[in-house]
Amino acid sequence: MSWGLLIDSCLLAFLVTFLAVVVGWCISLFLVGASGWKRVIFLVGVVATFSLPPFFVVNSWLGLFGKVGLLKSWVSIDAYSFGGATWVLVMMFWPVPCLMSFGALKRLTPELLDAEPGIRGFGLLKYVLFPLSYSALFQSGVIVFVLAFNNIAVPAILQVKVFPAQFWVQFSSTYNFQMAWQYGWVLALIPMVLLLAFNGRMIAWPWESQGLDSNVFLERLGYIIRNLSAVLFGGMIVISLLLPLGQLLLNARTWLDFSGAIQAGSRSIFNSFWFAFLTASSVSVIGVLTSSYKVFRLTWLFLFLPGVLLGVVWISIFNRPSLDWFYGGGCMVVTALSLRYFAFGWEGMRGAKNSIDADLVSATDLFGVSWWQRWRHLLQPQVGWAIFAVWYVIYLLCLWDTETVVLIVPPGGETLALRVFNLLHYGHHSQVNALCLILLLLALLPLVLGFVLSLIIKKWLKQDDL
After folding, report:
1. How close are the terminal C-alpha atoms of the chain, in Å?
2. Which residues have C-beta within 8 Å of that of residue 2, sequence separation ≥ 6?
3. In angstroms, rounded to a whole number, what is the distance separating the alpha carbons of residues 50 and 384?
4. How far is it, in rounded angstroms, from Cα 165 to Cα 188?
5. Looking at per-residue confidence, does 287 or 19 come out higher?
6. Does residue 52 register a pLDDT over 80?
């Protein structure tokens, strides 16, 4: 280990943060100017971009600019470089400042614009929009910096030496706990700084305000700025979402290797789904039970810790003869994933609980409504979608996770994400595309099952009412 790697990691994280914040803020101007169903589609595109697994994004760019990439002979770009890692991380993280700035800019009111009727164009950006979104830019910048600094998958695959990746390599080869504690405190310090940065600060969520009329906003923004923002949005969606998906779905080798990948990785497919399903379900249930206790807000620290550091802590605690029944089993993986992503379950369930109509809750308590009737007539119509959304986000995070499980995965417990991560260390592999397609299908599986189940339940409830 070298402390010089810490400087390289900070430089990488700073570059990614600066570029992601600039791109995200510019695109948020386009989203504020959109309206109706078009805005919904655009937001889905932004969220889908952020939802892509990191190794999937890396694989698509290796397929284009890797050692034997399709465009390597035409364009002299080396994906295995510091610049390549910066580019991929920006493609992954620009939606964070975009969505947070969008939420802040939606607080713009007609009264604020009427106070300065002559201000428009670049003056509007400088004196109104930028100050209005400054807090969101700072918050999103801190988040992106921490995510980029702690990211191990992208630099490791692209063979870029950074502090967290070298920490993982050193520990996995020596299991030197003294070294782990000597350097691990730095990895723990960064998330603590994040919590301090957010202490007492409010986050502007996009759904908290109706926002300004889009036509008024676009008229004041000006023709040049709104078109530049639209072009930037279209370009980023193409290169960060459509290009990876197209490279996967339009590649003939993806479909040729699909059946073989299923046969070779059937155990990994089962492990991926089972670990993600159990973790999402347990975190959601515990999140409901603990949603009233604010002390659990501190669990955000575990989310922003590097997964390998959490794995080191897990090994140091449970690698004991008396805990052999737990160590080296699937339960260890599920508990580690649950701890890391618990903050999502707690915060999501807390938000869902606070959004329930208090008068209806009092009425159901007064009339002694059964738990089933309470769920059917009160909770499900108001927060059923929110509960499923929280569960689904945790499911996806667990499905994509490699860093948390890479040190603690039991024998025979390899997941699809970990299988792809290991294959990409040897370059762009033809079977990786097929494995990524299987992962995307696993991601869609709960949506399909949920839709079918909702139809069955609605039909059953109608028959019950009759």
Report:
1. 70
2. 166
3. 24
4. 14
5. 19
6. yes
At 442 the pLDDT is 92
- CATH 1.10.357.10 for domain 257-466, yes or no, is no
**Euclidean distance between CA atoms 357 and 72, whole angstroms:** 58
Under 8 Å between Cβ of 187 and 6:
no
Helix or strand (DSSP H, E) at 297: none
| CATH architecture under which domain 1-250 falls | Orthogonal Bundle (1.10)
Closest to 48 in 3D by CA, of 396, 395, 307: 396
User: For residues 143 and 374, what is the distance between their CA atoms, to the nearest angstrom?
Assistant: 38
Query: Left if phi > 0, otherwise alpha if psi is -120 to 50, otherwise beta: which for 428?
Result: beta
> Tell me, what DSSP letter sits at residue 108?
-
The Cα–Cα gap between 149 and 427 comes to: 23
Average of per-residue pLDDT across 119-126? 76
How confident is the model over 254-261, as a mean pLDDT?
85
| Residue 324 identity (one-letter amino acid) | D
Tokens standing for residue 124: 């509007």
Residue 278 in 3-state DSSP?
helix
Q: Where are the domains of the chain?
A: 1-250, 257-466
Please, which pLDDT band fits residue 160 given cuts at 50, 70 and 90?
Answer: confident
Phi, psi of 409 (to 5 degrees): -65, 130
Count of helices and strands (H, E) across the chain: 25, 0
Tokens standing for residue 406: 């890479």
Residue in 425, 141, 169, 140 with CA at minimum distance from that of residue 306 = 169
Rounded to an integer, what distance in angstroms lies between the CA atom of residue 288 and that of residue 448? Answer: 25
Shared fold status for 1-250 and 257-466: yes
Angle subtended at Cα 225 by Cα 220 and Cα 228, rounded to the nearest 5 degrees: 150
Q: Is 338:199 a contact under the CB 8 Å cutoff?
A: no
Distance of alpha carbon 22 from alpha carbon 411, whole angstroms: 44
- The rounded distance, in Å, linking the Cα atoms of 166 and 86 is 17
Per-residue burial over 177-209, b if 16 or more Cβ lie within 10 Å, else e, is eeebeebbebbeebbeebeebbeeeeebebeee
Cα Rg of the chain (Å, integer):
23
- Pairwise CA distance, residues 30 & 25, whole Å: 9
